[in-house]
Write a structure and sequence with these properties.
The structure is a single chain. The protein is an alpha/beta fold. It is built from twelve helices and twelve strands. Helix 5 links the parallel strand 8 and strand 9. Helix 5 packs across helix 12 and helix 8 packs antiparallel against helix 9.
Length: 311
């Protein structure tokens, strides 16, 4: 096989992960290596070409793709070459998942108990008429956890029966595996469970005595006087805004009031819950892009005021 493939470094790829501009990430690790690992790259799709698996259907609509293996060697290089033969702009990840994690970059924790194992399509169900958390969580799932995930909205009293009958996981409802916990909302719970915060926070979240801090780790620890401190990541910034809008804590972030207003406005305009989710996905994409600029200290400010014309 022609193994002359382009490469991309973790540092170059990382800023795009989770954004609409991100290339499709393809996990091409061999079955044994995949099974031995508890993590996968955010938003990635599994393709075990070594076992003769067909190309993922998601590639049909993709323009760019990055293949990754354990250490960025032959498996990833050959995977990228196969993608190139399918007329995709492709590359392999230098150093693979090993170097990615060594750099402290986000990797999704496998949670087979929640239907997320990096291979099968996950299914999620919650209450009908979503506004904030029940839109934010699917956005997070689709962009970081499982791009193929399926979402269902049903009447409140049917959520758990539907979950049981349809092999789905309930969320954002009391008694669900992922729900509000103290000051934290369900979005925070997803961040904790799938470890979508810096690797160093895993121990903090596991040992924090305060239930709220245990749920959203450094996000809560960094709130000082209702403001984020230290160096929050883009996802932590988004989480703070979602929490503020969803829990009537608008003081947490100036943007929380805007998210609340937009969410309620869309809800008034759109009666179909799945159409509501589709309409709001670009809103969260835009919010995340802005949060990236905040994290990178490249945020754009607008303060132009016309000079007095004298009239």
């Amino acid at each position: 096989m022609d193994t002359v493939s382009k490469s991309i470094s973790p540092a170059t790829l990382a800023p795009a992960v989770g954004s609409r501009a991100a290339p499709l990430l393809i996990d091409v690790r061999k079955a044994e290596a995949f099974a031995e690992s508890d993590y996968f790259l955010p938003g990635s799709v599994r393709w075990d070409y070594n076992a003769g698996a067909p190309m993922p259907a998601e590639l049909a609509g993709a323009k760019r793709a990055v293949a990754y293996c354990v250490k960025g060697a032959e498996v990833g290089i050959n995977g990228a070459a196969l993608l190139a033969k399918a007329n995709l702009e492709s590359a392999y990840l230098e150093g693979g998942l090993r170097d990615w994690q060594a750099a402290g970059l986000l990797a999704v924790k496998k949670r087979p108990d929640l239907g997320v194992d990096g291979e099968r399509v996950s299914r999620w169900v919650t209450r009908a008429r979503p506004k904030i958390d029940r839109i934010a969580c699917p956005w997070l799932i689709r962009r970081f956890i499982d791009p193929r995930a399926e979402f269902f909205y049903v009447p409140t009293n049917e959520v758990f029966d539907f979950a049981k009958a349809n092999n789905a996981v309930a969320y954002d409802i009391p008694g669900a595996p992922l729900e509000h916990n103290g000051a934290a909302c369900s979005f925070d719970s997803f961040l904790r469970v799938f470890e979508l915060v810096p690797n160093a926070q895993s121990e903090t979240m596991a040992s924090a005595p305060n239930p709220a801090i245990a749920t959203f780790g450094r996000i809560a620890a960094n709130v000082i006087g209702d403001k984020l401190a230290a160096k929050p990541t883009a996802l932590e910034i988004v989480a703070n805004i979602v929490r503020g809008a969803d829990t009537d804590a608008l003081r947490l972030a100036p943007e929380a009031a805007g998210l609340l207003a937009i969410s309620l406005g869309f809800s008034r305009m759109i009666e179909d819950d799945h159409a509501m989710l589709d309409a709001m996905m670009p809103v969260y994409d835009a919010l995340y892009e802005w949060a990236i600029s905040v994290e990178n200290k490249s945020v754009e400010h607008h303060n132009w005021t016309p000079k007095d014309s004298g009239q």
